[in-house]
């Protein structure tokens, strides 16, 4: 490609509403252009990156035996009503009425349509396993679209769906996809981690997220440097402390803590570690009639160590809380605790409350909690002596760095990641809802065992940039760079020698199958270099009249700070040696 | 590709609602699968065809210097309000409200968005000309979607938009696209015609449709076998007859024609050629106030020869009718003609009516028309003697086969076509509406001169099938076949010799870069052959134990009725000789 025949549009400054570096750089480098909130034009430079991402995904999906098809973007509501998602999904599901008033949705994902295809097309166990995938535009009407392609409303996703005859087959399909994903992410040339994710009630451990490591990532990912344990924060288990609960050493004592309503304030006031305080979180569960009226409400008190954070996914698995819970209202709290939030605790309750202690809290002694009296806390609190054992003990919290690894092989560390892929065992959730069956060896209808597998095609470039950039701009891995090599001739418009050499080098690199762009725009060197450093093309070759007199060009990798001189005759070999390095 | 790793799904019978042969065959061959009215899944076999169409279009667009980008499917209404199309377009424009109640549309085309990009990105004449294109999903909420991908609601279109500094530049961009389109359609391997189309008020002659010739086509296309004249029916000019109007030879006479309200019935009753009758069509034009109230209405009488059809596009260019017209109501007709339709004519009007005669009628003598009296016609009607010359004479009719070619080089012929591409000079219609300007050499802002260029990516395969099929199924041109070659081994599951030879041949063809599928499904030969004839793969190689004993295979082109024996050692060369043939 020659720059004069392409479209290059760079900006000195990013628009003010771009918050994260990838968003800023994608706008500045002219990869994308905002059309509306969370909706972007993929500009020529950005589309090249997206197409390279797609090509790698497609190759590896095909290699793994998946078959590509393409499902419609506009899908009839009937199918979404079969699974209940038409009503269950919130306003992220973009709903449309057509000219005849019929309901449609813009696909956010395609479980319903692919299951509809399977129930019509996959009649027999002999046709299984089958894995259908598409690379297709999706829409999710995010409440707060932000960060450019990171959390857009319209985006491109690769979504694959496997159909198997039994759970063992589904597990094999799942593993084949997890393997393919490793190959895909290896090929992208990004640092990533495959982490265990929560699979809800269905899948046991068959759910993994593929996270691109980046300090700016939205997700906390947990891993053990001493082993291959890795999980996302929702999933990572906090083991119970080792050893028994220590004996009480302090008397129970009510202390005034005027205006100190947080554990941190209380710990500071009392001069004790935050880890000796316990926070009280009050939840409620409602029992409802078939008509949806509330029959009765149970109030729950969750106790976590002051320095720990609640993990909602884990709380949602506590028996009694696993059918849905909410935070208690102020009036419910006052009725049960006789006190407003900030000074709550498990001792001296006004009405029955179920107490669930985090594993850590259950083994604490001499702890501090609210006294259920405004401006007062209790210290020296001890189980059994001061209050009964909790109704339940569970893992309620997020792990923190230094926690023991669940596999017992070391201590957990935490880093940030950006989720760009997900493999998930679905079981028969959709096949049952849509009565999608095949005939087994005995001629009996059975529900498909399904898995689903996504890659955020348009999010991937944003994640790659979050991981790979510097103050000058983007640094693309070779595999997904818009161009692998840029030729920057200096003074091409003045020097016939430079022009001829540049054109010849360009032709040679094209002939060698290298994805090269020749910058024939006649920009000044400074502006030209700044453009390509911003755009992030990994390999740059500079031709100048002076260099050519010595039959030399300058080569510089985007990650390096200085250029090296290379004989013009050797540049192709030099480049090939550096590419993919 | 091996069939066992792909997805093949053929049907003996097409669903009852499939009317045209391409729709039937696409369903039967498993290329597409209906999801909703006018909305189809592109199944794996069909997607391969679509991707090949896309690849050819993309290569030729790039070669012509167009730059690919990708615009959003969901587009904000604001831009569509700037051009007025948000209100002007009918319900084909699918309108959406997002979660915040903001208006969006699903793109049916992208003039607004691309013009918005241009006005932000193309600042200077130095950046021009520029041609942006995308290959992207579109949606038009057709009132009556039908014929499968021929007139679907969701479809894939390649849409390109050129931006130029002046009309001469725009004309050059237009011609470059028209050339690229010829290359594209040549490469598809289809018989097609580029025909002049009506460009409305803007573009002079700069509008051409690319029509795939097919007896079942919806469009009539007009051409001159003796020259390169070709136009669509809307555009093709009917020349005035040569020579002067003949003299009157018959007296004016009122004849009873009870119950005979059509020209054909009257001609039959009177025993005269249909071409001696004149039909009367009554139109109305309303003058309205700014508030939209009708101030007054003009009634028009159009006179066409009884065997000719009115051409609405041409009528819409008659001065006075060129701001919009409608058919007159029954009561308007009765008020002006004193008679109900079926017996109308230009003689003896009750109120003033503007009379427009087709060029042909203006030169007729001794003609027949309604008497403005129920059950009566006039015969022997002659201009000047019996009624004044018409208020206007114009080309009002569709041409018919045998008419003189407008280029004077022969007689017109008519065939049917399917429109799959369109190149169109837009002028400044959109750039003015959206105030999209660039700075010219003098630093003055000027509106872009634009062109737009579409190819119906998903309609193309349907058109190809309408043109290329037989009673056994589809016959793909090599360039867009889902697979170019199919290897059909007979008894592969029993014979190790067949299996080994098939696998080796498959590997050899893959290595030669041939897009081949090996049918390793172990189907019976009859079913296997029927599948591939239905699917339409152009080149078939059959391997059998008997043939292999003589080191021979059978080759058959899909268009041929018999196979030829080819030495196994020669089959690659034989195939290469036949491919693209």
Automatic annotation (TrEMBL), chains A, B:
Residues 38-477 form the Aminoacyl-transfer RNA synthetases class-II family profile domain. Its EC number is 6.1.1.15. InterPro entries: aa-tRNA-synt_IIb, aa-tRNA-synth_II, aa-tRNA-synth_II/BPL/LPL, Anticodon-bd, Anticodon-bd_dom_sf, Pro-tRNA-ligase_IIa, Pro-tRNA-synth_IIa_bac-type, Pro-tRNA-Synthase_IIa_type1. GO terms for biological process: prolyl-tRNA aminoacylation. GO terms for cellular component: cytosol. It holds the Pfam family tRNA_edit. It is found in: Cytoplasm. GO terms for molecular function: aminoacyl-tRNA deacylase activity; ATP binding; proline-tRNA ligase activity. Keywords: Aminoacyl-tRNA synthetase, ATP-binding, Cytoplasm, Ligase, Nucleotide-binding, Protein biosynthesis. It comes from the Bacteria. Belongs to the class-II aminoacyl-tRNA synthetase family. ProS type 1 subfamily. Catalyzes the attachment of proline to tRNA(Pro) in a two-step reaction: proline is first activated by ATP to form Pro-AMP and then transferred to the acceptor end of tRNA(Pro). As ProRS can inadvertently accommodate and process non-cognate amino acids such as alanine and cysteine, to avoid such errors it has two additional distinct editing activities against alanine. One activity is designated as 'pretransfer' editing and involves the tRNA(Pro)-independent hydrolysis of activated Ala-AMP. Consists of three domains: the N-terminal catalytic domain, the editing domain and the C-terminal anticodon-binding domain. Homodimer. This is Proline--tRNA ligase. It comes from Extensimonas vulgaris. The gene is proS.
